[in-house]
Amino acid sequence: MRKKIIAANWKMNMTCGEAASYLEIFLRELGTDGEKVEVVIVPPFTAIQKVSELLSTAQSVKVGAQNMYFEKSGAFTGEVSAAMLRELFVRYVVLGHSERRTIFGETDEVVNRKTHAAHEAVLKPIVCIGETLAERDGGKVEEVLDRQIRGSLAGLSAKELTETVLAYEPVWAIGTGRTATPQQAQDAHAFIRKTLANVWDVPTADKVRIQYGGSVKPENAALLMGQADIDGALVGGASLDPRAFAQIVKQSASE
Ligand code: PGA
């Protein structure tokens, strides 16, 4: 059984003060439902320490980061390392989000180096993949996913792969209000798992958790989370509202 993992990707939102008010409401709304799934709050770097402090007594809610650099230290202005995140009790790191890929030019090769660096530092990567609308319309979904999987995850051991979370995020569904249908998402997830089985093996692929991301909200979470190969959600916009995010977690916990 794969334990579902629901992550709140706050993107470039939330000051430390806003994060504190958010968590007060979120933890109250969540109650004990958070224990049935893994919940990860992914704040901007500047709020990580505050969020870690506030979650130190909330066993079931973990902290993630939105990005990191693959080098250990040095002259890399503006970057942070895996060890710096670990020091702040960060457990997960989102890598290769489509905004990183399209706005900041990250390639599969860069994402791959970051994925290896995260594992070396015992940080669990959440590696994002997904096609654009033009690629979907051009019938290239499988080709794109295959390339991103092989490129971003190259050289991972079977053990490392099982400690990696994948996030299937069709770019056309991110922040657009246009969600993939449960069937479209399930088809992509099944293809991703089949590809993992081809590159590694079936038992390993069966252990990997694959999140869906792209306009997940309380109204569509249950149907999406009920699909066989969907093991959680990476939530952007709706995760900025503590009540909506708690609802999404609760829906997922009952699937
Ligand atoms: P969205 O973002 O939920 O606002 O579509 C998802 C993401 O980018 O991770």
Give the key terms.
single chain; 255 residues; alpha/beta; TIM Barrel; eight-stranded parallel beta barrel; 45% helix; binds 2-phosphoglycolic acid
Q: How is the secondary structure organized here?
A:
Layout: E1 5-9, H1 16-30, E2 38-42, H2 45-54, E3 61-65, H3 82-87, E4 92-95, H4 98-103, H5 108-120, E5 124-129, H6 133-137, H7 141-152, H8 158-162, E6 165-168, H9 182-199, H10 202-207, E7 209-213, H11 218-225, E8 232-235, H12 242-253
General form: globular
What is the string of helix and strand elements? EHEHEHEHHEHHHEHHEHEH
Number of strands: 8
Major β-sheet profile: 8 strands, parallel, barrel
- The H-level CATH homologous superfamily, spelled out, is Aldolase class I
Give the C-alpha Rg. Answer: 17 Å
CATH level-two architecture: Alpha-Beta Barrel
**How many H/I helical runs?**
12
The fraction of residues in strands falls at 5-15%
* Unreliable residue runs: none
How are the strands ordered across the major sheet? 1-2-3-4-5-6-7-8
